[in-house]
Specification:
By secondary structure, the protein is an all-alpha fold. The chain has helices at 33-58, 72-98, 111-130, 137-161, 165-186, 193-218, 242-270, 277-304. α7 packs antiparallel against α8.
Amino acid sequence: MALNNPAFNNPAFQDPRAVQTYPGGPGAANLGGSAQAATAQQAAIDAAARAKLEGMYAAPSAGAAEMDRMTVEDTVWKTVALFAVLVVTAAAGWIWTMSPVTALNPSPTTVPWIVGMLGGFVLSLVVIFTSRKTVRPALIFAYAAFEGLFVGGISAFFEFLWPGIVLQATLATLSVVGVTLALFASGKVRASKRATKIFMIAMMGYLVFALINLGLMIFNVPIAGGVFGIYSQPSFLFGIPWGILIGVFVVIMAAYSLVLDFDMVQQGVRNGAPRKYGWLGGFGIMVTVVWLYVEILRILAIARN
């Protein structure tokens, strides 16, 4: 190269325009006419280059979608697609649950409920652990399908026991999600480090309580009666409806979890995360919304019971 070899440390090898007037160059024999023609030609080239640069600067900049980056709008559409799959399989789960119900057999089946719950749980773990390396939309769609079976199955079962409860739970869930989203979009509600620490502590306590409640139900301990164990106790201690109070507390935790989900989506957009991570954002929102729906369904069932 010219900078490495002194023999090429010459304007003729560094600037093409210098060739036109350099002694011994192609323009040296005719400095009168050809030099003027070369100068005019170079001026035209420079003008074209300036026009091209001006056009580039005047053109709109490429958006995040064109750069294959995560956007809020794209994440919203991915989330809608996942919920569309959930609704379709929920309808299938509802029909499957109610199919055995006849005049001679008035009991719905719990198979869709159990299959959807187990399948969704396993797939959620797979999605969470594999997402550290790559995001697989197919797994997330499969999770949405199994989650739909679970939601449709449990909804049909509850509707069979308490008619009208599913519509109430659906409207309540949509209301909580809508209010939370509106407050977050307006900036009135934000996730903070202190609130998140409190949320994590409360979440761990709730998980321990849920495991204890499950154990009491499995071993048929008298203190845990009904479908939900301790949850179903209308006046467990001091005449206080602990089942409903616990349910309200869990709904508040689920609402804050939604705030965390929205915050993480915004954080991913600010960090310029790849576009495929929008599927992961939709997955997180779906997990929280289903959790919220089931808890509201449980509260309404306890209240009716």
